[in-house]
Each structure stands twice: as structure tokens, then as C-alpha cells.
Design a protein that fits this description.
single chain; ABC transporter transmembrane region fold; Rossmann fold; alpha/beta; elongated
């Protein structure tokens, strides 16, 4: 109960805009409870008037019952409308907050966990959390209403009430045991389901590659194994659950039979009238629902607690570490930065950078080259603070990036990767993601600079063309040019190009090369390129090997002084990967 109250308090803060509706909703439900208590008494009176052959009184009472039923339906309809709005808005607020917090999670944690973990929590778990107010209302209202019926039975005959209470206690104990097992098995099912959802997500995103690799059979087998695990876990869960429901059902059947014999005994001993016995028997079926509602409420509370644990563990940083930024803000970044004895490893025993030191001056164009795994892309990741360094120091304009806030770092750096992610939005909206107040002229200028404007004009919907998930309707070169245009829209002081022209044809690459050259001396530009011909005009080129700078200089200087660089340049057709 302590966890439930804590979780309820955490959820309550997401209902700020709905407090008036919640108050109105509670008032309507109090009316529903009162009606629920009055109706059994009136219904009992109907039976009495019928057995006494008082037809005139029966008609009068029936009309009153009808009027109250109509009122209840109207009140119930309005209450449900309020609840739908409360649920919708609470769901929205929690989902937005959770989405915001997921984007704050350290990249290391994102790398180590399947996307299914976050998809499940962002969808079904948030739904379970937001639904708690509706659940509480429905079940508490019904429980109180049925307690009202118990009071009515007490007024008729205390022996029948004692019998029913004993029955309720026994059924409750069976239900309590079922719920204990439910909680244990529910957690196991959720974990298995996360694994399956994660793989399904990867299966959909990687469908094209799976087809190209002719790997459908092995992927379907893996999918089959994961779904089978989930279904078996669910089956075992339901099997145990149904077994305890069977025990409870048998117990209720025994008591149903017992109450008949008790009522007969009371009638024979003139302790109860036949009409009152009919009322008790008629409402005993409703009274037993108290246990059903209590059990269902406990089940929903367990589900709510489990979902809250999974949702708020992310929001409150109890399970996944969040990115940490400093508080210092730079209004304008000049573009100077320095690596001082920086060491870094993605995994503890796999060092990528070793005591790396170098300095880049504002408005300078510097290129990084080297073999696969030499640490080129890692330098970019660290400069954007996508990962925290193990040892050493990275500064921007002389300030340690650990002291800078997020906007000072990422708001002043544009990175164009070799595999840019394009969202399933229109071209216009993809560009507006980085600048919401983007004007038409700014958008067109950026696309012209990226050599994609003419292509966009050939599309039926032009800039309003939806490009599909990951930009699937575009070619690799078109996706990269759109990503370059998106970067140009940002107009940051530091531009990082991580193999940004790798998917472009020679003509387009030359155009982009000219565009980049036009930016030189105006921005700090860092380039990783597999074609060395694209970086020969850089102010400096750093040759990396095994996480260290092996040589540094201009293109001509490296050709003369660095054998490894010269070998790479002379084998221009060989692709150098990160």
C-alpha cells in the first residue's frame, strides 16, 4: 500500500490541468453511490409489494425506480466523458515527460538496451499508469455500493449477514493468494515481452537488409523463439491464475448451496419471511462481487505499481543514468577547442583513445584520417558530449565541456554523419526539426547549398513530400544531401562532417566540396573522409592510428613525411571506414 500511495502521488502531479474535471467526476460518483444504495432497497420493496399483491404500490415504486435508473445513466454518461478526458490528458502528459527523459539517458545505456524496453514503457506502461483514476473510481464505487447492499441485508436478517461475511472472507483469502502469484508472474511476462518487442522493432527497421542478406528464415526463427517464450510465459501465468479462479468458483458454489439451506431453515423457524428470503438470495450474487471488485482492484494496483516502477525509474533516474551537463552558458561560441590527454573506452577493456591531445583554432578546417577503429568518429562523439571521457579534458573556447550546459555544446555544433537518420516526416518538417521558425528562403538556400533543391522540385509534393521511416523513399545520396541541408539550416560555429559525402556521386560530391570550401574561414570545420581527395585543401590533417595522433600537417607535408598517409592516398579506391 505504501508503494501504491507513493506511485499515486507521482501520477497525481500529471493531472494539474484536470483538477476541476476530477472534482466534478467525484461529485457525480458520489451521486452514483447513493443511487446504488437506494435501488436495492426499492427493488426489495418491489418484491414485497408483489408478494403482498399490492399492485398499485408496485406501479408507483416501479416508476420511481425507472426515474432513478434514468438519472443514473445520465450521471454515468457524463462521468465517463470526464474520465476519458482525464485519462487522455494524463496519458499525454506522462508520455511526453517520459519521452523527454528517455532522450536524456546516457548513450551508453541506450547502446546496452533494446529499443523494446523503451517502446513498451512509453506505450503500454504509460497507459496502465494513466488509467488508475478510472480504475479506482469504477471499483471503489462498486465496492461501496455493494457494502450498502450488505447493510440492507443486515437490516433484514443478521444470521444471513454473518454467513455471507464468512463466505466473503474465505473467498478473499483465496483471491489474495492468487494476486500474490499474479504479481510474480506478471513481472516475468513483461520482461519476456520487452525482449520480443525489441526484436520486432529491429526486424521492421532492418527489413530491407534482411531481404538483401536472404536472412528471412533465420530472422523468423529468432522471432518465433522470442514470441514462443512470451506465449509460454503468458500460458503458465494464465494457467496458475485460472487454477485459483477455479478454487474460488468452487467455494462460491458451496456457499450458494449453503445460503439456500440457511434461508430454508430461517423460514421454517419463522425467523425470516419468504419475501425477505427472496431479497437476500437475489442480492447475494451482487454481494459476492465485492470480492471480485477487491480482487480486480488489487490486480490493477499491482499492474499500476509495476508500470509505475518501469516508467518512473526512467523519469527519476533510478534505473538508467542520465546525461549530466554543467550550468555555464556561452552566448556565442568562437569555435576553439582542445583535447588534453583524453582517454576513452566504450567498454572497460577496449581502449579507443589513449592520452590524445590536439588543438583546433576557430575558423580552422581540420581533417582526420586513419584506419578502421583508429578513433576518428569517437572524437566527434566526445566533442558533442555523447559520451563522457574517462581521463583528460576537452574544452570549447577554453571552457571544460563538463562545465557547459547542453545548448552551449550541441547548440553550437552541427554533425553530419555517414548514416544520417531521416524522420518519417515531410522534407520541410525534417528541416524544421532543427529550427522551428525556419523561413521558406532559409530552407531553399540550405537545400541549394546541399545540392538537393532541384531534386525536391521534381517531387509531386515538393518540400511537403513524406520521405518514409529513415528516409526510405530517398536514395542514400539524397538522404545524405538532405542531412547536409538540415545541418546548414542550423548555422552553428562548429561543423563536423563524419564521412558526410560517402554516399554521393562524384559530381554531387564536388558540389558539396565547393559548398564546404565556401564555409571555410567562416566556421570551424572538422572532416572525416574516406576519399582523401575531399580533404586535401584542409588547413591541417591529423593521421590517427590506434587512438593516437601519428602524424600532423598539410596534405603535401603528410605525403612527404607520413608513409601510412601516402599509402592511403595512393590507394584512393579503397574505402576507409570508421
Amino acid at each position: 500500500m505504501k508503494n501504491f500511495l507513493r506511485n499515486l502521488k507521482l501520477t497525481w502531479k500529471y493531472t494539474k490541468t484536470q483538477r476541476i474535471k476530477i472534482l466534478s467526476f467525484l461529485i457525480l460518483n458520489i451521486i452514483t453511490i447513493i443511487i446504488g444504495i437506494i435501488l436495492p432497497i426499492l427493488s426489495a420493496n418491489q418484491i414485497i409489494q408483489l408478494t403482498n399483491n399490492s399492485l398499485e404500490q408496485l406501479v408507483y415504486i416501479t416508476l420511481v425506480v425507472f426515474g432513478i435508473e434514468v438519472l443514473r445513466n445520465i450521471v454515468d454518461y457524463i462521468a465517463r466523458m470526464f474520465m476519458q478526458i482525464i485519462y487522455r490528458e494524463t496519458f499525454k502528459e506522462i508520455q511526453i515527460d517520459l519521452g523527454r527523459e528517455i532522450l536524456k539517458i546516457e548513450n551508453k545505456c541506450l547502446d546496452e538496451n533494446s529499443s523494446g524496453v523503451f517502446i513498451q514503457r512509453l506505450t503500454s506502461d504509460v497507459g496502465s499508469v494513466a488509467e488508475i483514476f478510472n480504475v479506482l473510481n469504477n471499483h471503489v464505487t462498486r465496492i461501496i455500493t455493494n457494502i450498502g447492499i450488505l447493510i440492507a441485508i443486515f437490516l433484514i436478517n443478521k444470521f444471513a449477514l454473518i454467513f455471507i461475511i464468512i463466505m466473503l472472507l474465505l473467498v478473499f483469502l483465496l483471491e489474495k493468494r492468487r494476486l500474490q502469484l499474479y504479481d510474480i508472474n506478471d513481472k516475468s511476462v513483461r520482461n519476456k515481452n520487452e525482449s520480443a518487442v525489441g526484436f520486432i522493432s529491429e526486424l521492421i527497421r532492418g527489413a530491407r537488409d534482411i531481404k538483401m542478406l536472404n536472412a528471412e528464415k533465420s530472422c523468423i526463427n529468432e522471432l518465433k523463439n522470442r514470441i514462443t517464450d512470451v506465449n509460454e510465459e503468458k500460458y503458465n501465468f494464465l494457467k496458475i491464475d485460472k487454477k485459483w479462479q477455479f478454487f474460488r468458483g468452487m467455494t462460491i458454489d458451496v456457499f450458494d448451496t449453503g445460503i439456500v439451506f440457511l434461508l430454508i431453515y430461517l423460514i421454517l423457524n419463522q425467523n425470516l419471511e419468504v419475501a425477505m428470503a427472496l431479497v437476500i438470495y437475489n442480492y447475494m450474487g451482487k454481494v459476492i462481487h465485492i470480492v471480485d471488485y477487491l480482487g480486480s482492484l488489487a490486480e490493477h494496483i499491482e499492474d499500476f505499481n509495476n508500470s509505475c516502477e518501469r516508467v518512473f525509474n526512467i523519469i527519476n533516474e533510478e534505473e538508467f543514468s542520465k546525461e549530466i551537463f554543467g550550468k555555464k552558458h556561452l552566448e556565442k561560441v568562437n569555435g576553439n577547442f582542445e583535447f588534453k590527454d583524453v582517454s576513452f573506452a566504450y567498454k572497460e577493456d577496449e581502449i579507443v583513445l589513449k592520452d590524445l591531445s590536439f588543438k583546433v583554432n576557430a575558423k580552422e578546417t581540420v581533417a582526420f584520417v586513419g584506419k578502421t577503429g583508429s578513433g576518428k568518429s569517437t572524437i566527434f562523439n566526445l566533442l558533442c558530449k555523447m559520451y563522457d571521457i574517462k581521463d583528460g579534458k576537452i574544452t570549447i573556447d577554453g571552457v571544460d565541456i563538463k562545465e557547459l550546459d547542453k545548448d552551449s555544446i550541441r547548440g553550437n555544433i552541427t554533425i553530419i554523419s555517414q548514416s544520417p537518420y531521416i524522420f518519417n516526416l515531410s522534407i520541410r518538417d525534417n528541416l524544421k526539426l532543427v529550427k522551428q521558425d525556419l523561413t521558406e528562403n532559409e530552407m531553399i538556400d540550405a537545400c541549394k547549398l546541399a545540392c538537393i533543391h532541384d531534386f525536391i522540385l521534381t517531387l509531386k509534393d515538393g518540400y511537403d513530400t513524406i520521405v518514409g521511416e529513415g528516409g526510405i523513399s530517398l536514395s542514400g545520396g539524397q538522404r545524405q544531401r538532405l542531412a547536409i541541408a538540415r545541418a546548414f539550416v542550423q548555422k552553428t560555429e562548429i561543423i563536423l562532417l563524419d564521412e558526410a559525402t560517402s554516399a554521393l556521386d562524384n559530381e554531387t560530391q564536388n558540389n558539396i566540396k565547393k559548398a564546404i570550401e565556401n564555409l571555410q574561414d567562416k566556421y570551424t570545420i572538422l572532416i572525416i573522409a574516406h576519399r582523401l581527395s575531399t580533404i586535401i585543401n584542409s588547413d591541417r590533417i591529423l593521421y590517427l592510428n590506434d587512438g593516437k595522433i601519428e602524424a600532423e600537417g598539410t596534405h603535401k607535408e603528410l605525403l612527404k613525411n607520413c608513409k601510412a598517409y601516402k599509402t592511403l592516398y595512393e590507394s584512393e579506391d579503397i574505402k576507409i571506414e570508421n
